Structure to design on (278 residues):
């Protein structure tokens, strides 16, 4: 499947290694992840060099083209919040994952949209098991 | 005017005093600000006691009813990012203000939506002057 993986860039990279583990598991399982490079170390300075409008248009085009959006929401991010809203607005299934114990905005956890699933995880392995359970239902 | 003021709650309250100054200036100017209490000190624990779905439905109803949404985006927030996307999606004028020098997500700063205005400010007084310039055009 074509999976848009959404993670914090400007908002903070505290969970970067989790982003990388999730993206690696997705690509190893044969999924297409256009945003895979956004999990890489050093991406913040790479993205800083791209015109904001170019980033926006690129990301929105990827969301339009994806089958599902998977967001890691352990670290607050305007961009990821916006992307979740945008994806739900055009009817894409969205899975929001967060490290167990982190606080998640009630605009995410309290959203009754049937296309949205919100789940905590402890380890990247557990995150990937949640994803494997989610994907077949999202087809 | 009916103004939805959006600020970070779960994401962090570093700019709480700016939120309060902006909300005070808006209400003193005669505007209706249904979210005014979200700028108050101690709101995080108050909001924590409300069911997530109740917060979501309340905030979305306020966005639907507002004339404009003014967001303070100095501190990353999934909720505020989501609210900006939601408001633009239903055609509401949005003003995103951030403390000069803070980094703003390119999903906000790069968004070409003609209903969105993004501006830096140094002091709450400057923020309010930007708002006073923005509001008449948003009518």
């Amino acid at each position: 499947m074509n999976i848009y993986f959404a993670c914090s860039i400007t908002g903070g990279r505290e969970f970067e290694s989790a982003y990388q583990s999730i993206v690696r598991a997705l690509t190893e399982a044969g999924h297409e992840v256009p945003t895979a490079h956004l999990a890489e170390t050093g991406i913040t300075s790479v993205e800083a060099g791209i015109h904001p409008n170019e980033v926006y248009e690129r990301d929105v085009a990827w969301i339009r083209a994806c089958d599902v959006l998977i967001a890691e929401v352990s670290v607050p991010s305007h961009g990821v919040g916006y992307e979740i809203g945008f994806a739900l607005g055009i009817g894409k299934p969205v899975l929001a994952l967060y490290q167990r114990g982190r606080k998640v905005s009630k605009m995410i956890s309290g959203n009754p949209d049937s296309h949205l699933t919100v789940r905590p995880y402890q380890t990247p392995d557990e995150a990937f098991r949640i994803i494997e359970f989610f994907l077949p239902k999202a087809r």
User: Anything to note?
Assistant: Residues 124-138 of chain B form the longest helix (15 residues). The interface with chain A takes residues 8-12, 47, 50-57, 59, 73, 75-86, 89, 103-112 of chain B (CB under 8 Å).
